[in-house]
Amino acid sequence: MAQSELLQRLHEDYNLEHGIETKENKKPLDLLTQTIKFSGCIKHLLTSHKVPYANEEDDNTYEEYLLSDDEGSAIPNKKSKNKKQNKVGAEDEVEERIASIKNKLRQKKGPTTERQQKRREAKKLKRSKGVQKILLSSSKNLKNENVKHQKLKGAIKTEDEALEDDKSLVKPVASQPAFNQEGKIVYSKVDFAANPGGKTKRSHQNPKEILKKLKDTKKQINELKEQGETEKVAEIKNDIAWKKAFDKVEGKKVKDDTKLLQKAIKKRKVEKRKAKTKWSERKEKVEHDKSKRQKKRQDNLDKRSKDKKTRKLKKASKKGRIIAGY
């Protein structure tokens, strides 16, 4: 709604209430005329209801409507008195509570009956006895430990004295210089001059050679027996026995059993045969794979060249050349 319409509506309502007849104007009134009329109506209302009028200069007009000091001062005084009384009552209650708590604490601290006092004394005695027992046990343990230490020290001293006596009895042995096979003095325990590389020669591991040697020695012994030289045979046998013994002491394997040697030779032959067959199979396989790869490569190359030719011929036929098959 516009402001002009609102004013008109209010004016009409006022006229209806007061029974004022309104003349219907054909022309609508301006906003200014409507506001003037409305303000006149408001003034009429204010004067009819006797509303007090005040100028802008009169600042103290509100004092007429306020209460006097005597009338208004009675209520706050009562409130302040009540507050003071409440405060005093609360303080008294707090003091009473504190006093009661103090009394209770005093009662707890000081036993009122003899029975309680006796109980407390008994507890104190028990505690003191327990402490005394602990102290006694600890002192005993310390004494025992001290005694043990002293005994150990005495035993160690006696052992040291005995060792010193033994040392005095033992005489130093004069070490004689050791000579090697070449007649040179060896200062260390190991003779590095004998084997400068540090590697000892291995005994023959080939069973064929060992078997051959055994057969040769056997043949030699038989020949000497036939000739009647028994002393030489005994010497050779003795040397062989000593050699075996020394080899065993050094940790070398003594291979003098002909049956075992023949078995080992057979085993080696079988292993060689197997290895030979495996090697031949491997060779064949390698050759086969090689030929296969070469064939595949050649096929690929042929195919590539063929495809190239066909492409060229197709291009030529498209350009207009007459080629058989395209």
Automatic annotation (TrEMBL):
Keyword DNA-binding set for record: no
Cellular-component GO terms for this entry: nucleolus
Broad class of the protein's primary localization: nucleus
Keywords in alphabetical order: Nucleus
InterPro entries: Rrp14/SURF6_C, SURF6
Subcellular location: Nucleus
GO biological process entries: ribosomal large subunit biogenesis; ribosomal small subunit biogenesis
Location of the region described as Disordered in the Swiss-Prot/TrEMBL record: 66-153, 266-326
Gene Ontology MF annotations: DNA binding; RNA binding
Biased composition (Basic and acidic residues): 278-290
Family, similarity comment: Belongs to the SURF6 family.
Name of protein: Surf6
Organism this protein belongs to: Drosophila willistoni (Fruit fly)
Lineage start: Eukaryota, Metazoa, Ecdysozoa, Arthropoda, Hexapoda
